[in-house]
């Protein structure tokens, strides 16, 4: 019996099952990974004839329309008519690796060379490559290819993008509205969403123009159409995105761990978790900014008396967190952590419901003066634009998600719907919290959970859920960061000592930021503005201009429009250095 085996990379939809890993947030991995790749599963199907997977042709671009497919074939001539037909039908269908006989030795070879073999009379130019199935293509091969098409529906694709984009940015969105102003914040949210959607779509189109393929990443597109320099720059800023995300997650985890332990410790000790000062109301919200400015302590925490300076959110908790997480960073497999990916959706949904419930319980709290000034744009508005560049960032993995869509012609529509959902989610969380927050709006923190007393039950639940989710996501981010460094700097060479060294450096950087710059708003806006300049504002447009040039459709209007977008990104980055958000 013949067997058809699809190897990893030929079709990403076939390498995932219900128990396999999925792409972590803000990931972009190279094909030359020195460690086991996250998507390293393959499927084997028993068929009567060899059947290639229904994946896009990798090298089928308009300007390079040769149907060049690398096959694993037996080291023998093609004596039978069936062998020849199977070979040609495989050649004109999507690129795959086919094993004709698992008992034989195989060697990779080029279809063009096979077609000119003396044992195969047909020449490349003698075959009519018309769309649709060939006359001699067997029904078995056609049926199997149909069955092996990506099974991800548009609905699944839309919510995959929604879940991937949303994350810790939800916690900072009300603060972003404060920095920009009420209505200017909403308008800026819509504008940045549209801009990021357009540039993400440009990457999807460039991927389709090249011919698709599971092994073709954004880094590859940059190398092919722009040059090696573009690939190196894209890789640097992809690493910068991952590094910024790990730092922000570390700050959040230290915050959640500190407050959760304090709550549990105080309850076990039987001490009151409510403020004890007679001058302080028993409201569930507080203004940490006023507390810092006045150098006063609003909430009396018995934890500090018992544990003293050994348990401090900025000085010691980040190091305690390192003792908890560091062993997990050295796992060779990330399977354990990817099993908890559904927690991402659970935590996001809980956070949205949490904000809506709290806002509804407070009611609208905006006086006449605040309504009159709601249209005034604040000079600190670039803080929100930098934040949004990170909040809408999916550009380094968008082609990986969209290539699994069952109907590729719907990619533009599905991507647009996903971005609309993400935009309205951000607006609902940011606007509702801003409008209903009962204290002065300037009190809103870059982590909205910091505005709640630690004894609030819903807040405690949010912190615990988010802490557990981040504990599973952080090793994945560290893994992706590490393999990118290895594939780029070390050329795929790694060992245990090198892995330990990279992890130690990463954790040390996170501890330093959590100690001296424990503000996720600052980290996210700088990371978004810096990496967004390359991935969001520049390279998608340069790829599009390069393709237009190859097609002979480049004109002055296209050049001016697509070069103005990187200028916006550059101004956004420069503006971050002139904002004081504390």
How would you sum up this structure in a few lines?
By secondary structure, the chain is mainly α. The chain is 57% helix and 3% strand.
Give the SSE layout.
Blueprint: E1 3-6, E2 43-46, E3 70-74, H1 81-92, E4 106-110, H2 111-115, H3 139-147, H4 154-165, H5 169-180, H6 182-210, H7 218-225, H8 228-269, H9 288-294, H10 302-307, H11 317-329, H12 335-338, H13 342-362, H14 368-372, H15 382-391, H16 398-402, H17 411-436, H18 457-488, H19 496-516, H20 520-535, H21 539-551, H22 556-576
Antiparallel strand pairs: 1-2, 3-4
Helix pairs in contact: 4-17, 5-6, 5-15, 5-17, 6-15, 6-17, 6-21, 7-8, 8-18, 8-19, 8-20, 11-19, 13-17, 13-18, 15-20, 15-22, 20-22, 21-22
Major β-sheet annotation: 2 strands, antiparallel
Helical residues, percent: 55-70%
Q: For the largest beta sheet, what order do the strands appear in spatially? A: 1-2
Chain-averaged pLDDT: 74
Question: What would you say this structure looks like, in words?
Answer:
- The strands form two sheets. Strands 1-2 form a two-stranded antiparallel ribbon.
- α6 crosses α21 and α11 runs antiparallel to α19.
- With 582 residues, it is mainly α.
- The chain has 22 helices and four strands.
- Residues 1-148, 275-282 and 295-300 have low confidence and may be disordered.
- The longest helix has 42 residues, at 228-269.
